[in-house]
C-alpha cells in the first residue's frame, strides 16, 4: 500500500510548487525516496529560478496588507493553523516517517513540537510592543516602534522537516512579515502538507510560499534569495560551511541573518552524578533521530572514578535499542538519511578504532546496501580521533575519560562549535561553575532533552547567529524605529 492510500486525508500529499496559495505542477520533477526501503515515495515539482523570482514578487505584494493587520488578526490565523496541524498529526507523522525515516512515534512528537511554535507565536503576535523613553529635552519626546522586517526567506533541513519550518515561519508571520521557504530536497512532502494546512487556516495569498527543489537547483534558488534586495531576512538551519556561503552571498544586500549551524556537543558526567539518570539522558541526547540532530551529543566525557560503570550501563542499554523501518511499531531507531551520511559514520568508527578506541557495541551496517546502522558505542576514544573534532550526525557515541573539572571544561570548549552541551552533577556549586564556563548557547544540566518552544534555541561561535523560539524569537523579524517628536511646549 503506498503512502497516498495510508493517509486519512490523502489531499495533504502535495507535490507541487506553492506560490500565492496556488499549486503548480511543473513538468520538471525530482524523486523523493524512503530511506528505509529505497522505494519511490513521490515525484515532486522542481522549482525553477523563475518560480523563485515569482515567489519573491508574490511575497512582496502581500507584505503591506499583512503587515497592516493587527497582531490579534494574525494570531487568529496562526491559531487556526495550529489546530489543523494537531488535528492532522497522524497523517503528518506518516508523511514524515516515509520520507525521512525516523520512527513514527518520534515523527508524531515532532509534529506536536512543531505545532507548539504556531501556538506560541500566535500569542506573541499580540505582544509586539515599543517603548516610550525618557527624553533629555523638555520640548521633545522619544519613542521606539517595532515593525516587521519585510519579506523573509527560510532554508530548512531534512532532519526535522516540519518543526524547523514552523520555528522560522511562525515568528515571521506573527511579526507581520511574509516568507518564502526552500525545504530540504529529501523531505519536501512535510513542508508542502504544512503549507496546505496554512491555506486552509486562512493564510492570505503570498504570505507563505514553498519552493521544493533538488540539491543542484537548491543552490540556484538559494543564490536568487540571497541576491534579492527585496528579501530583508534570511534564516537557515544546516551545516556551518553552507552557512558561511549564505553569509557571503547575503553581504551585498546586508540582510538580517539567523543561522543555526553545526554542533559538536559534549556530554560530561561527573563522579557525583546520578549514574542511572546520566545513562538515560545520554540515550535521549545521542540516539534520537538516529543521532541526526544538531544538538545531539558527539563527545562523551566521563570522570575516571565512574567511567567503567557508566560505559557498562550505557552500552547495555544501547544494545537494547531496536532498529528498523520507522513505520514498524517496535522501531526505536530508523535509518540514516542517505549513503553519504552512512559513509561518514563508517569513516568515523574505523578511524577511532584504528587509533585505539574500543568498540563496545555496534559498529557496522545492519545489512549491506541499506541505510540502517547499529547503535554504536566507542570507549577510550583518543582526542585525535576524527569523531572528537567532527560532527558525526549518526548513532555513534564516543566516550573518553577525564580526571579534573578544568581539564574537561577545556576539552569541551576546544571546538569552533558552540550550540548545545550537557553535563550531569548533583553538586550545586559545580553546576553554576561549569554552566557559566561552557562556551555554548544552550546547556542541559541533568537532562538530555532541552528543546521546547518557550526557550531560546541557538548557538555561539561558529554555530550561528540569532535565536529561535521563546519571547526572543520574534525579535529576529522586527526592526526598531526611533521617533523623535519635537515642538512640545
TrEMBL record:
The keyword Oxidoreductase applies. Residues 24-482 form the Aldehyde dehydrogenase domain. Signal peptide: none annotated. InterPro entries: Ald_DH/histidinol_DH, Ald_DH_C, Ald_DH_CS_CYS, Ald_DH_N, Aldehyde_DH_dom, Aldehyde_DH_Superfamily, Succ_semiAld_DH. Keywords: Oxidoreductase. The keyword Transport does not apply. CDD domains: ALDH_F5_SSADH_GabD. Belongs to the aldehyde dehydrogenase family. NCBIfam families: SSADH. This is NAD-dependent succinate-semialdehyde dehydrogenase. It comes from Undibacterium squillarum.
Amino acid at each position: 500500500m503506498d503512502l497516498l492510500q495510508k493517509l486519512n486525508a490523502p489531499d495533504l500529499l502535495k507535490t507541487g510548487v506553492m506560490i500565492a496559495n496556488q499549486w503548480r505542477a511543473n513538468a520538471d520533477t525530482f524523486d523523493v525516496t524512503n530511506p528505509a526501503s529505497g522505494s519511490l515515495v513521490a515525484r515532486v515539482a522542481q522549482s525553477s529560478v523563475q518560480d523563485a523570482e515569482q515567489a519573491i514578487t508574490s511575497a512582496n505584494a502581500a507584505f503591506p496588507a499583512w503587515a497592516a493587520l493587527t497582531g490579534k488578526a494574525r494570531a487568529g490565523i496562526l491559531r487556526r493553523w495550529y489546530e489543523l496541524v494537531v488535528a492532522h498529526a497522524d497523517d503528518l507523522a506518516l508523511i514524515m516517517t516515509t520520507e525521512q525515516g525516523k520512527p513514527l512515534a518520534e515523527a508524531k512528537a515532532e509534529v506536536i513540537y512543531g505545532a507548539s511554535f504556531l501556538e506560541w507565536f500566535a500569542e506573541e503576535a499580540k505582544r509586539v510592543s515599543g517603548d516610550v523613553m525618557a527624553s533629555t529635552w523638555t520640548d521633545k519626546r522619544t519613542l521606539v516602534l517595532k515593525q516587521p522586517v519585510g519579506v523573509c526567506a527560510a532554508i530548512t533541513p531534512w532532519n526535522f522537516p516540519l518543526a524547523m519550518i514552523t520555528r522560522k515561519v511562525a515568528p515571521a508571520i506573527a511579526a507581520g512579515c511574509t516568507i518564502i521557504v526552500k525545504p530540504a530536497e529529501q523531505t519536501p512532502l512535510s513542508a508542502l502538507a504544512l503549507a496546505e494546512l496554512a491555506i486552509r487556516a486562512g493564510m492570505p495569498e503570498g504570505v507563505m510560499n514553498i519552493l521544493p527543489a533538488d540539491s543542484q537547483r537548491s543552490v540556484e534558488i538559494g543564490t536568487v534569495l540571497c541576491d534579492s534586495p527585496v528579501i530583508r531576512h534570511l534564516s537557515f538551519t544546516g551545516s556551518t560551511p553552507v552557512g558561511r556561503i549564505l553569509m557571503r552571498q547575503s553581504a551585498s544586500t546586508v540582510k538580517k541573518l539567523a543561522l543555526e549551524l553545526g554542533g559538536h556537543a559534549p556530554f560530561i558526567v561527573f563522579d557525583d552524578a546520578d549514574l542511572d539518570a546520566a545513562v538515560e539522558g545520554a540515550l535521549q541526547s545521542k540516539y534520537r533521530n538516529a543521532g541526526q540532530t544538531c544538538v545531539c551529543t558527539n563527545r562523551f566525557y566521563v570522570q575516571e572514578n565512574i567511567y567503567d560503570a557508566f560505559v557498562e550501563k550505557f552500552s547495555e542499554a544501547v544494545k537494547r535499542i531496536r532498529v528498523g523501518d520507522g513505520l514498524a511499531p517496535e522501531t526505536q531507531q530508523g535509518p540514516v538519511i542517505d549513503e553519504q551520511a552512512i559513509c561518514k559514520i563508517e569513516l568515523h568508527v574505523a578511524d577511532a578504532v584504528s587509533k585505539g578506541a574500543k568498540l563496545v557495541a555496534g559498529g557496522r551496517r545492519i545489512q549491506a546496501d541499506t541505510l540502517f546502522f547499529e547503535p554504536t558505542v566507542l570507549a577510550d576514544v583518543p582526542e585525535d580521533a576524527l569523531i572528537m573534532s567532527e560532527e558525526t550526525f549518526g548513532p555513534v557515541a564516543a566516550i573518553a575519560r577525564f580526571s579534573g573539572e578544568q581539564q574537561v571544561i577545556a576539552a569541551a570548549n576546544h571546538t569552533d562549535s558552540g550550540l548545545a552541551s550537557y553535563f550531569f552533577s548533583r553538586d550545586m556549586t559545580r553546576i553554576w561553575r561549569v554552566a557559566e564556563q561552557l562556551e555554548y548557547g544552550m546547556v542541559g544540566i541533568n537532562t538530555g532533552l532541552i528543546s521546547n518552544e518557550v526557550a531560546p534555541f541557538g548557538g555561539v561561535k561558529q554555530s550561528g547567529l540569532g535565536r529561535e523560539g521563546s519571547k526572543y524569537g520574534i525579535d529576529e523579524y522586527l526592526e526598531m524605529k526611533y521617533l523623535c517628536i519635537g515642538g512640545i511646549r
